[in-house]
TrEMBL record:
Residues 2-135 form the Ssl1-like domain. One of its GO terms (cellular component) is transcription factor TFIIH holo complex. Gene3D superfamilies: von Willebrand factor, type A domain (3.40.50.410). This is Ssl1-like domain-containing protein. Signal peptide: none annotated. It comes from Attheya septentrionalis. It comes from the Eukaryota. InterPro entries: Ssl1-like, vWFA_dom_sf. SUPFAM superfamilies: vWA-like.
Length: 136
């Protein structure tokens, strides 16, 4: 709630990446309640032995889904993707640096990453190329 209090015009959307796929959990919205409910549902479904949780992480699929959702955002506002990941690698269908990065750069989307386990080289390259930040 504090983020939306300090940034009343902002919108956030959540993308969930697992099993090599990415899907929108919530569309771009200023509703903190919608995001909380989606996160609570995701946490509940991943606790225990849910076969749909985990699997390979795909940075490219996540960035593509997030980038498409930001395509409708006004060009005068800032567009940013924040990747929070605990994976040590990414299993992508193509070359994220040659295919996805140019599209993000052309759309003026800044990509920052928070790597919980270790720094991924590809995250560093994307953050540097888009003016984002990387934290480990």
């Amino acid at each position: 709630g504090e983020y939306f209090d300090q940034n009343p015009l902002s919108h956030i959307g959540l993308v969930w990446c697992c099993n090599g796929e990415a899907e929108m959990m919530t569309r771009l919205s200023g509703s903190v309640n919608a995001h909380r409910l989606a996160l609570a549902a995701a946490l509940q479904s991943t606790s225990g032995s849910n076969p749909n949780s985990g699997g390979e992480f795909s940075l490219q699929n996540g960035l593509e889904v997030a980038g498409r959702s930001l395509g409708h955002a006004p060009r005068h506002g800032s567009r940013e993707i924040l990747v929070v990941l605990g994976a040590l690698s990414t299993c992508d269908p193509g070359n994220v640096l040659m295919e996805t990065l140019p599209r993000l750069s052309k759309a003026n989307i800044r990509v920052s990453s928070i790597c919980l386990a270790a720094e991924l080289y590809v995250c560093r390259k994307i953050a540097d190329a888009t003016g984002g930040l990387l934290g480990v």
